[in-house]
Amino acid sequence: MSLESMLSLLSLESPSPEGSIELKTLVFKPKTPKSQVPVPVIVVAQSTTATAAPVIAKYAGVKEPRLANDELTTTFFGTPAKEFSLASLSNDHKDGKIKILIDSSIKDDSETTYILANSVAKLALTGSQLSGFLSVYSPVVVDFIAEASATPAAAPTKSAAPAAAASTNTAKLEDAKLIGVTVDKEADFSNWYSQILTKGEMLDYYDVSGCYILRPASYSIWEKITEWFDKRIKQDGVTNAYFPMFVSSKVLEKEKDHIEGFAPEVAWVTRAGSSELEEPIAIRPTSETVMYPYYAKWIRSHRDLPLKLNQWNSVVRWEFKHPQPFLRTREFLWQEGHTAHLTEAEADEQVKTILDLYAGVYEELLAVPVVKGKKTENEKFAGGLYTTTCESYIPTTGRGIQGATSHHLGQNFSKMFNISVENPLGSDHPKIFANQTSWGLSTRVIGVMVMVHSDNKGLVLPPRVAQHQVVIIPVGITNKTTKEVEDNLYSTCTALQAKLKAADVRVITDFRSNYSPGWRFSDAELKGIPVRLEVGPKDLATDSVLAVRRDNGAKTSISISEIETKIPELLEDIQSSLFKAAKEKFDTHRVIVDEWKDFVPTLNKKNLILAPYCDVPECEDDIKDSSSKQDNGEDMDVDEKAPSMGAKSLCIPYDQPPMKAGQKCIKCDRPAVHYTMFGRSY
Amino acid sequence: MSLESMLSLLSLESPSPEGSIELKTLVFKPKTPKSQVPVPVIVVAQSTTATAAPVIAKYAGVKEPRLANDELTTTFFGTPAKEFSLASLSNDHKDGKIKILIDSSIKDDSETTYILANSVAKLALTGSQLSGFLSVYSPVVVDFIAEASATPAAAPTKSAAPAAAASTNTAKLEDAKLIGVTVDKEADFSNWYSQILTKGEMLDYYDVSGCYILRPASYSIWEKITEWFDKRIKQDGVTNAYFPMFVSSKVLEKEKDHIEGFAPEVAWVTRAGSSELEEPIAIRPTSETVMYPYYAKWIRSHRDLPLKLNQWNSVVRWEFKHPQPFLRTREFLWQEGHTAHLTEAEADEQVKTILDLYAGVYEELLAVPVVKGKKTENEKFAGGLYTTTCESYIPTTGRGIQGATSHHLGQNFSKMFNISVENPLGSDHPKIFANQTSWGLSTRVIGVMVMVHSDNKGLVLPPRVAQHQVVIIPVGITNKTTKEVEDNLYSTCTALQAKLKAADVRVITDFRSNYSPGWRFSDAELKGIPVRLEVGPKDLATDSVLAVRRDNGAKTSISISEIETKIPELLEDIQSSLFKAAKEKFDTHRVIVDEWKDFVPTLNKKNLILAPYCDVPECEDDIKDSSSKQDNGEDMDVDEKAPSMGAKSLCIPYDQPPMKAGQKCIKCDRPAVHYTMFGRSY
Predict the structure, then answer these.
(1) Between the CA of residue A620 and those of A403, A603, B166, what are the distances in Å?
(2) Of A26, A69, A207, the CB nearest to B251
(3) DSSP secondary structure string, A39-103?
(4) Nearest residue of A to residue B214 by CA position?
(5) Do B208 and A246 make contact, defined as CB atoms within 8 angstroms?
(6) Do A170 and B264 lie within an 8 Å CB cutoff?
(7) What 3 state SS string does B517-568 have?
(8) Mean pLDDT along residues B472-477
(9) ipTM higher than 0.85?
């Protein structure tokens, strides 16, 4: 075929013939025992037709099909997932090596022109032509459209919103049980977490999977954190700036180790309006490579050091794992600080200063205890020298959770980006590459706080970060209450609010007379307001009010004349009680284990473990493998089945237990170097 | 050809053969008199080879070639720009209907396999095959690589960074002239603006076109603005939240009028890691359609109204027009407020409250005068009821600039998204759709401020927003100065700094002894620091310091004992002087014109015009056409040639001049309804 004829042939197909319909060809990987070769399932349907995983599972006779990754498509079809097309099929795939599901609307349609496209080619053909071509693979015909409408639309799926309180109507809301949390924290932690976040109005689920709406109740916590942290880094000489969210692929990929860690999760913009971009542009997953070319430009002399910039922004990491509000989201808010220093020691100091501030955010604001330490080589930030971390603990699941990390990048990035200055000793000395740090704290902190303190009644918020610290609710109004007493009650509540506001207490009133006081109590508990003030006619008679603590339900009568001092004291007491309770739990579940035989049993009791460890990366891999549930031939999903998960190293705590002389590593025969904290983790 | 053979043929080409090289085929539209049909220029080169517009212009013999839009490619080749390929060429294009430039490296290369791809097809062929195919179009052979290296790398281009001060070395920096602005504000406003922003360290150019880095000097101004505005909206009952940056196309496109305005500028994410997304996902250009589905869910009763949320975020509008720092950028920071109310009147009130705050940001913080008013029907927010605006004025260009807008959305969006409540009068009354408002203020304000106040010495910053309000510079140190005097001088400077800090003045010292005091004065002027304090041995003798104002250069001696009161007074005086000077300019260049014959001459004297106007949209179009430069057959670029631009309506000012009885519209015979402000604008 001549070039010209081929060109004209192709140009015939472009643009698509009028009335033609686009098809999708998706490759799914079913859950398969490790010992077996998976049988990919190829789904051919109109691009707008829903092809839900359960339907595919049913008709292909497989378990939990998921969209195949490049690894699978490359192995089976010699092409990355996005370039897969039916043209990739060959004789090798006959005889049950793959399964094909084809939508019944296409199967025998000889009228319509269908378009099959992947990222490199596009073909037009009829449904009958297509099924003729596919017949050698014995496709299964599925009526996807009927299947989709048969599935109840409200059925909750993993990535969609759980059935929300909002769908109950106002009348039903009179029953406090209905507005509250309907599952037990211990029995169904995952649903409990969803429910308290949505019913507590912290967050709402969103129609783009892995993205969530931060409602005022959670965003205001983030504001408290940013205010506290921002003030302190400014005192440390850091200034804020803003770098673009877009990164060219050239710049993004400059530091190889670094990008390797992020590449699978980078979101790419390829189109603007109706124009394809000449080069795809990435959305920052973090800003090292965004910022450092400019550090190289701005840092001309050792007098320009240290350069300490921070930005408050959002970053995107398109995780394909099961998303979880606050903990694993595709877009999240954070701060990222990036500093450059003349000496390694100054950078050490910076890393430590920030780590202490991170611990402060957790312990002083969120009342969540943390263990500070250093990450092992396996777990450090790719491309950096070492990583320090605050690690926290979720008692209900017994899992550790990384709180925030502060990295010493050494000179790796500065050499890559040429961030260098003349030696202060003179130009006959070698030039000096900057020592850099980077550090980030994200909205993840809010998720940790919720998981640690909240209970079956709803959120429990530490007073220092709660949007509303006190709610005033009038009580004891009956049919017999006189108008005068009632008016007096309301005006007292309003006066109390003003008094407390003047004392810098964040206080609201709940005068919603269409709801009973009991309903309003439950609502305030659901939302985690630290103190409820009940004001009734009897209280007024003694010039006092009843304060009820959210954390432990304790009630105290407070004289109105002392309200401006007693309430702030009470709030501080709640703050420290929450911290104390959480710390006690963490302390009793951080167990020193010196012998391997005790490791897994201790882990299974929802503990984190401090174990003597040799600091050899391979040994850490071994610990992880050996502590995961015995391989039962299933390709386990660690997110949903936490107990099967192996323990990984969380950090080498700065606060080390005394090591016995001659102590060996818990797993191997090498001498132990550090007590290292291991655990199942998020 | 059978389906199977075609599929296998295509699969051969995919992935590309090893060692093959990708080509690009770009279509350019040259500047062409309106009366003539343009001759598109097609450039064929390796995808990595730079093919600069000046080189294309030179070899194709055309003026200012620009990448062709869909309109041109559809007219000429029947295909949108992104689907154009050489396969789109036909006999119709012979005989000089198009011009083709082909890179010399490809021309006669029969060894290498080249890949020609567009969004629908991909072909592999040799250079000789390709040039054989193209020969009927008489292509011009260009050595693009040699041309690229012949062009000096430092030559500033419109979208790239201007030659920066940073490239001069430290020795040369001793000459104050070199660090300063090298072009005149009046003579070359565009380059002046670039220079003061980059040399003043407000901003740096970035390697993704249309995106800029906000350095601490500008970001700190944004922080001052956010702090001021955030506090005031919170007092007004607004709370902050955060909605995801991603929008599904289904949701984005729900309100038709609205999306029509934004669609051409929406950036689309189509890929994550190496996986194509099933559906492209948009990055928010604004959040009406992101937020309102949730307003519908959250607003259950009239007691939930008003709902007032705001978010501080960044949005993306992928403009294809000439980008300009702060004024027209592809990503920008802003706040967007969205409220829902029971009545239209409450929404009216909200719109006005916010507009007043916007005017406050300009006038009280940035010392930039504005005119408040309502947009005409032509200029209002698409999908809204009416739009209010603060309009400002750039004296140097005589152009108006939209400052910030506050929209009354009426019930249009609430009907679309079903944001409704039961009628408080009872369920037998019709349900009520919420009345909504939305309003935004962006980092554009910083650009306006810079354009209005700054001068040929650099930035001039209003003290209330300046990152550093005062710089203290020791002077008068010579070889003869004793160590004791010198030490005393430095310690006095440090003590002064502490005193001023205690008085809440943002003050720095400049002790860089490797630079002369004169150089440091220039540097402080370049950066726009409002007050420079010079402290020399002679001043110390009289216990005083010399204060030099950045805005007018005036010098005052201030007694050290009064420094904590005199400096804040001086700063406030500078703030009001800046506002007064700008207001005077704006007031004298806002001219009432009642007769059309005076309209264009007045406009050409860098004025905005207040003209009696009939409020009929078509008449506004007529005014715009009639006030643009007479058509000289050139396809004018309005960005670069402002005087050719027609005047559009900026607003109907709330502050109306008295209208004469029987006054007609300035352009037509209809009676005038309002004085309307017209002008050339950004």
Answers:
(1) 21, 15, 48
(2) A207
(3) --EEEEEETTS---HHHHHHHHT-EEEEE--HHHHHHHHSS-GGG--GGG--GGGTTTTSEEEEE
(4) A242
(5) yes
(6) no
(7) HHHHHHHHHHCCCCEEEEECHHHHHCCEEEEEECCCCCEEEEEHHHHHHHHH
(8) 96
(9) no
Instruction: Give the whole-angstrom CA distance, residue B320 versus residue A117.
Output: 29
> What are the boundaries of each domain within chain A?
3-142, 203-244+285-453, 470-576, 593-679
**The residue type at A306:** P
Sort out which chain B residues have CB atoms less than 8 A from A204's CB and list them: 294, 297
Tell me the three-class secondary structure of A414-475, residue by residue: HHHHCCEECCCCCCCCCCEECEEEEEEEECHHHHHHHHHHCECCECCCCCCCCCCCEEEEEC
> Does the pLDDT of residue A22 top 90, yes or no?
no
Structure tokens at A670: 């090498």
For B4-38, the pLDDT digits (tens) are 444 444 433 445 566 678 888 889 998 887 778 88
Which range among A443-447, A570-574, B135-139, B546-550 shows the weakest confidence by mean pLDDT? B135-139
Query: Among partner residues A81, A83, A248, which is closest to B208 by beta-carbon distance?
Result: A248
The answer regarding whether domain A203-244+285-453 maps to CATH 3.30.930.10 reads: yes
What topology does CATH give the domain A593-679?
Translation Initiation Factor IF3 (3.30.110)
**What are the tokens at B292?**
């309102």
Residue type, A421: V
For B169, B378, B623, B647, the CA distances from B620, given in Å and listed in that order, are 54, 8, 5, 9
What is the 8-class DSSP label of residue A387?
E
Amino acid at B554: A
Gyration radius of chain B over CA positions: 30
Residue of A nearest to B4 (CA): A133
What distance, in Å, lies between the first and last C-alpha atoms of chain B? 57
Beta-carbon separation of B241 and A331 below 8 A: no
Residues B318-322: what's their mean pLDDT?
Answer: 86
Tens digits of per-residue pLDDT, B407-440?
999 999 999 999 999 998 888 899 999 999 999 9
Predicted confidence (pLDDT) per residue in B563-616, tens digit = 999 999 999 999 999 999 999 999 999 999 999 999 999 999 999 999 999 999
CA distance A529 to chain B (A): 17
Surface-to-core class of residue B52, CB atoms within 10 Å of its CB (0-12 exposed, 13-18 middle, 19+ buried): middle
pLDDT at residue number A424: 85
Mean pLDDT of B241-249: 96
Of A634, A641, A638, A647, the residue nearest A679 (C-alpha) = A647
The one-letter amino acid at A204: D
Q: Do B244 and A13 touch (CB under 8 A)?
A: no
Q: Which residues pair with A31 in a beta bridge?
A: A63
Q: Give the A:B interface size as CB pairs under 8 Å.
A: 257
The domain covering A470-576 belongs, at the CATH homologous superfamily level, to Anticodon-binding domain (3.40.50.800)
The fold adopted by the segment(s) A3-142 is YbaK protein (3.90.960)
pLDDT given for residue B136 in this prediction: 81
What phi and psi, each to the nearest 5 degrees, are found at residue A49? -85, 135
Q: How near does any CA of chain A get to the CA of B613, in Å?
A: 35
> Above pLDDT 70, what percent of chain B?
89
Give the separation between CA B388 and CA B376, rounded to whole angstroms.
9
Contact check, Cβ <8 Å, B70/A263: no
Write out chain B residues lying below 8 Å of A250, CB-based: 207
* Confidence band of B542 (pLDDT split at 50, 70, 90): very high
User: In terms of Cα–Cα distance, which of A31, A19, A32, A23 is closest to A102?
Assistant: A23
CA angle A358, A363, A368 (to 5 degrees): 110
Give B477: exposed, middle or buried? Use CB within 10 Å, 0-12, 13-18, 19+. Answer: middle
